[in-house]
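dumping these here so i dont lose them again. two proteins, back to back, each one seq then structure tokens. dont judge the mess
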Amino acid sequence: MAFRTALSGLNAAATELNVTANNVANTNTTGFKGSRAQFADVINAGALGVSTNTVGSGVRLAAVQQQFGQGNVEFTNNNLDLAISGEGFFTLADATGFVYSRNGAFNVDREGNVVNAQNQRMQVYPSLAIGGFNTGVLTDLRLQTTQSSPQATGTGDVSVNLPANASTPVVGPFDPTDPQTYNHTTSTAVYDSLGNLFNATFFFTKTANPNEWNVALTVDGSQVGGLNTLQFSSTGALTAPVGGNVTFPAYDPGTGADPINVSFGFANSTQFGSQFGVNSISQDGFTSGRLTSIDIDESGVVFARYTNGRATELGQVALSNFPNTQGLRQLGENTWGESFNSGDVIRGQPGSASFGLIQSGALEGSNVDITNELVTMITAQRNFQANAQMITTEDQVTQTIINIR
């Protein structure tokens, strides 16, 4: 009996050494979660409730329980390296279905999908045309390699200050090629539907009427329409046109693109002081652009950024969690699978409910405490030696009994 009891102790100590060795071996494994061996004593079931002097029959392995504590976050230079600060797992898809991982070392495959080292595809919530994300659907995160489409200029805003003490030009009528026929100019860029760039210049001319100016527009030197009147109040605020919008006639760029139809708002323009000043000019057109980078914010939104300054939302990282994470099936390669004991999967967005935030350009390291593991190793080694000594002692007792004459 003592042989069997001591043997169970040897097996338990060996198992604990195996668990500890696995933890130590994965100290530098990204997203690894350490395990802990849990043991239970063995009591003869037939003796339960019969005597308080029952001697146990040894020890057994009750469970090898994973510890899902947070690992250290280490920063990298790769925007596709992701770390979760808090609860949740990355949701990955392969031929067998969905798997879950804390390893955020991702790269791009030949088809543009964001995958891990096992070619399991990261899952995201797709973006909606009206803004936001469809959180009821999962899809592969695929990086766009095509150019960003151009957009023709349609509207813009011009905020300038026109000097209140300006004089009417002595030379007339207005001629954009003759500086003596106008007071001030300023320029901005406009784009046609093919993304071609044109220089748009505004000409401001003081009229003979009090607080009144004319504004004209040229595109690449060609005048677009005639003169448009801007009327200011005695306090310098724009009063006409109502709303401040000036719509210019269509301009044919001659590039095969659609005519440029543009309306500029002058509502923020003023007539103060004695100096001309440009506060701001903006317009909504842009040229085509090439993909330059992928950025992921802490809420998991994936942005594709282009050379034209535009950013497109490609999706939002989908995180998953479970009522009992320790019930997950270990699949190897730092991945887990859903099981009956884990409960049904709970999906959500980073930063919402109990889900953690995403850190781009970083990886979560192993949560193994090497100092604690070395102490556990020494303890398990002592337990192994003690149980081996127990077998030796029992062997000596048995030999003594056999040698009785």
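---- next one ----
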Amino acid sequence: MDEARLIYLVSDATGETAEKIVNAVLLQFPEKVVRLRRISHVRDKNSIFNCLDDALKDQALIVYTMVNRELAQLVNDECEALGIPHLDLITPLLSKASEFFGRSPRQTPGLLHHMDEEYFRRIEAVEFTVKHDDGQELRHLPYADIVLVGVSRTSKTPLSTYLAHRGWKVANVPLIRGMEPPAELMQVDPRRVAGLYIDPQRLVELRATRLRHLGQDARAAYANLEEIEEEIRAAKNFFRRNGWVMIDVSGKAVEESANEALVKLKLK
């Protein structure tokens, strides 16, 4: 078996970009034994000198992603002087992009990693929201950024999902007539709770459609106008008693309701 060869991945950020590219290349050399050594957050000359000294001893290949032009040039010059094989993954592309856009790059390390963090934050928010839809996992309500409360068919789930895709951990809790609200809901910071309500006539239409889809009688109490008017009235009184902001979702796109919720909750 061939002796393992080393590739140093040197970056002024996390080095994840270099690692992904190098791993993609190594797939084309399955017979070779290669070890990767990732050296992250290299942002001063001494760190570069120490790294290159080690690479020289290990007879390694240097693959680097340095957005700081001065440091990238230093790596290049030192590798040339020491005879270390090296490849700059970022500078040629930055130069071409600068020509194309007619401006200099920001030279700020870690921007891609920050974008990745934002992406995973949104994924986490979506996962949380799915698990806490329609009153599930009530013990976790204190961990929600936003808690939406409302009677059935007041857009709690669509609104929760929309907010989750923008990075907010959302739980929603239904109000069911004749049943006490869950005790866990009353322990949530009222500044994070929004009560949803809707025009009663519109709610009749939504519930009647729901019942028909389920093959049930659309004239049931669930879709009765008088029953719904009382249900909405009781819900709004409940919201006021608890000091929660209220959102009228009647005839609104989910984006509009979401924006109103964020503004009223002082999250935007």
